[in-house]
């Protein structure tokens, strides 16, 4: 295989290095995966307006997300089980993000704990919260995020029940891994991953082990999730979470203009337009298709961010042109991590930054804040 020049190269390498059950877990969407596919396909339908003879010197990708300076408007999205793609995956991804100057978001369902990531990186990161039925546990988790120095709380609203992903059911996915002959085979054919994993103690859910009951004994991820996660979560809960946390708050998983208006009323600092990477409601529109009407509804009241389907810097630029102030990548960095650990996450960020910078230049712009619908051919109508 030749040099790594685009995110698809990292994906191919990750597929060869990560046991099938964990690679498939990342590379899956709910049911028919139509929304998962639409997320990236819809970016491809948007055309750019080429401009020429514009001074290209002194370009910069630096901007802010929720008032925090970022080297480019691309954060790492929260991804559960990141530490199963590569040993100590959350720590490595957090280090790569900190070195690059973009936010890393640690999932509630991470393998490395809040405390382990804080200790290893000594840099602030963002924490993503899932609301579970056990409110004492959630309060304790919020307090732990504060103690770990997290600089934003990302509250995910689109997963009260876990969407059904066929690949996970067929693979009998669980973390820690099960040891049926099939699972042993999948791991034995990935010796690099196995050796690497034997070198760490971080092999189960670091934030919740010993706290939330039953976590050592996962019959299936979905059964466990549906038992623990709170199906009663409502807009009324944002208040107590916001108050307990007391810092910058981002609401994740908004895909509808009416929900965006509700979110803006909570006084949160930002929303993330997201369909959970196509992993929850199959048949929902792509995030990029949903973005314009949400920006139209609340763009002057709350910062609007977007994730879902971003595989290049061009995708980032299109989201910015349609009104997003920031974006997040999930699989794009996960493939880098699975392929080659921290260096792979760095490569993913380098690739996206280069693509964003070159695209911006060829569109005749020098700063991300200058980007608008005017940079899109026919204003980006799909
Ligand atoms: C393997 C995987 C695990 C995820 N786990 C979480 C999670 O724990 N919490 C969360 O809020 N979102 C989670 N997400 C959703 C991501 O934060 C993000 O919305 C999505 O990955 C964006 O799409 P992309 O992967 O196409 O960039 C997960 C996504 C993937 C692919
Ligand atoms: O897989 C996911 O998308 C996710 O967010 C999750 C939810 C519960 C347990 C593990 C991962």
TrEMBL record:
Keyword annotations of the record: Flavoprotein, FMN, Oxidoreductase
Alphabetical list of Pfam families matching this protein: FMN_dh (PF01070)
A single Gene Ontology CC term: plasma membrane
One Gene Ontology term of the molecular function aspect: L-lactate dehydrogenase (NAD+) activity
Residues the entry annotates as binding FMN: 78-80, 107, 128, 130, 156, 252, 274, 307-311, 330-331
CDD domains noted in UniProt: alpha_hydroxyacid_oxid_FMN
Gene Ontology biological-process annotations: aerobic respiration
Cofactor needs: FMN
Record: active site: 276
UniProt-annotated binding residues for glyoxylate: 25, 165, 276, 279
Lineage: superkingdom: Bacteria
Cited NCBIfam families: PRK11197.1
PANTHER family: 2-HYDROXYACID OXIDASE 1, S -2-HYDROXY-ACID OXIDASE-RELATED
Family: Belongs to the FMN-dependent alpha-hydroxy acid dehydrogenase family.
Name the UniProt record assigns to this protein: Alpha-hydroxy-acid oxidizing protein
Organism for this UniProt entry: Microbaculum marinisediminis
């Amino acid at each position: 295989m030749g040099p790594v020049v685009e995110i698809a190269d990292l994906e191919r390498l990750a597929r060869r290095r990560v046991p099938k059950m964990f690679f498939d877990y990342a590379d899956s969407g709910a049911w028919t995966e139509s929304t998962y596919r639409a997320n990236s396909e819809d970016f491809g339908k948007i055309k750019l307006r080429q401009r020429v003879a514009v001074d290209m010197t002194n370009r910069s990708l630096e901007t802010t997300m929720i008032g925090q300076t970022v080297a480019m408007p691309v954060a790492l999205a929260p991804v559960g089980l990141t530490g199963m793609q590569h040993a100590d995956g959350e720590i490595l991804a957090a280090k790569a993000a900190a070195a690059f100057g973009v936010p890393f978001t640690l999932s509630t369902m991470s393998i490395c704990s809040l405390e382990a990531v804080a200790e290893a990186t000594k840099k602030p990161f963002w924490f993503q919260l899932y609301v579970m039925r056990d409110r004492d546990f959630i309060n304790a988790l919020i307090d732990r995020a504060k103690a770990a120095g997290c600089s934003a709380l990302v509250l995910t609203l689109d997963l009260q029940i876990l969407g059904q992903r066929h690949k996970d059911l067929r693979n009998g996915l669980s973390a820690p891994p099960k040891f049926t002959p099939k699972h042993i085979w999948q791991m034995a054919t990935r010796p690099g991953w196995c050796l690497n994993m034997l070198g760490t103690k971080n092999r189960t859910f670091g934030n919740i082990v010993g706290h939330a009951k039953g976590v050592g004994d996962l019959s299936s991820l979905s059964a466990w999730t549906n038992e623990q996660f709170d199906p009663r979560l409502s807009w009324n809960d944002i208040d107590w979470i916001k108050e307990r946390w007391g810092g910058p708050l981002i609401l994740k998983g908004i895909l509808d203009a009416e929900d965006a208006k509700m979110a803006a009323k909570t006084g949160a600092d930002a929303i993330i337009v997201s369909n959970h990477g196509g992993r929850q409601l199959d048949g929902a529109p792509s995030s990029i298709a949903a973005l314009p009407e949400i920006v139209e509804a609340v763009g002057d009241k709350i910062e609007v961010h977007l994730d879902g389907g971003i595989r290049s810097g061009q995708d980032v630029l299109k989201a910015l042109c349609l009104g997003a102030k920031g974006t997040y990548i999930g699989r794009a960095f996960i493939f880098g991590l699975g392929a080659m650990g921290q260096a792979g996450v760095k490569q993913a960020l380098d690739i996206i930054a280069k693509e964003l910078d070159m695209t911006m230049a060829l569109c005749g712009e020098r700063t991300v804040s200058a980007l608008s619908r005017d940079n899109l051919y026919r204003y980006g109508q799909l």
